[in-house]
Amino acid sequence: LKVKVLQNVLGANDAIAARNRELLDRHRVLAVDVMSSPGAGKTTLIIQALRLLKNKLRLAVVEGDIASTIDSDRVKKEGVEVLQINVGAECSLDANMVSQGLAGLPLEKLDLVFIENVGNLICPAEFALGEHLRVVVLSLPEGDDKPEKYPLMFTKCDCVVINKMDLKPYLEYDLEKVKRKARGLNPGVKFFETSCRTGAGVKEWCAWLAGERKKRSS
Amino acid sequence: MHEAGLTQNILDLALGKAREVKAARVNSIDLVIGELSGAVGDSIRFYFECLSRGTPAEGAALNIREVPARLRCRDCGREFHPEDVAAWLCPGCGSQGVEVTGGRELYIDSMEVD
Q1: Chain segment B67-76, per-residue pLDDT in tens
Q2: CA-CA to A43 of 20 to 30 Å: which in A62, A133, A164, A211?
Q3: Of the candidates A3, A94, A122, which has its C-beta nearest B113's C-beta?
Q4: Which of B69, B70, B55, B61 is nearest to B24 (CA)?
Q5: What per-residue string of b and e applies to A87-125 under the rule 16 or more CB within 10 Å gives b?
Q6: B21 shares contact with chain A (CB less than 8 Å)
Q7: Contact list, A122 vs chain B (CB under 8 Å)
Q8: DSSP 8-state secondary structure symbol assigned to residue B94
Q9: pLDDT tens-place string over residues A18-44
Q10: A26: part of which helix (H) or strand (E)?
Q11: Helix B3-20 and helix B41-51: axis angle, to 10°?
């Protein structure tokens, strides 16, 4: 007997992602998925943003890593709620892991949750988590070919943060090329240039986040 | 890289559907995989063999239909298959402004059951 199925393999993930989104919306919490290669500066960027935003917004962080609590230990020192998820052999957070993370957070007392994904420019592009915003962090030492090598990631993001700008004098990095290629894949994408070491540009990124939060909660 | 989880989803969907139609056995599964879905067919086959053991889908054939990536140029409107999946350039006008119109599929189309 032949039976028609027509069911998406990631359907279960997408259904949980939709539930996560409903839960977040009900509590008016903005969820920001932060993705990058390993070492681009996701945790440091989040920590800098926490420092700038914590007097204005109630914040929390969900940390996704293969192993360890290194990132959550760093974030904890900032005095915000943090939840570490160790994904083990998985290469990305998925909606189910995030739903467990959200269950451990006091959502009624929050305005914005950063979800720091596993360092990887491939798999996180494929899993909806229920997030409102998708942020890709690039850093100068990685080289300027990322939008060409990992196009899918760039087709689905809201903004690209180009980090470690303080290293620009020492590296050959074609900033305009990166922007041109990313815009080609995603015409509406926004760019921020930051250095988490000097703090440059982080304020602008935070202003954008705060604006997005306001836009969605009014 | 996450094919183990994907394969478990495939198996769960197939077994769920088999129960729904009161079938005792799954003989084959027609799976559609887009070139840009990130899923690797050979890897799914490997996991399927392991994960399906002891279930009504044990030994079922996985028929995989691959769907090539399709891109559309935002400047000249041309639809094309990127020769190099990593460099999305329009072969007509050289533009880098492209959108994905196909190749992200990852679904079970149908199955054969007894």
Answers
A1: 999 999 999 9
A2: A211
A3: A3
A4: B55
A5: beebbbbbbbbbbebbeebebeebbbbbbbbbbbbbbbb
A6: yes
A7: 1, 38
A8: -
A9: 999 999 999 999 999 999 999 999 999
A10: helix A11-26
A11: 60
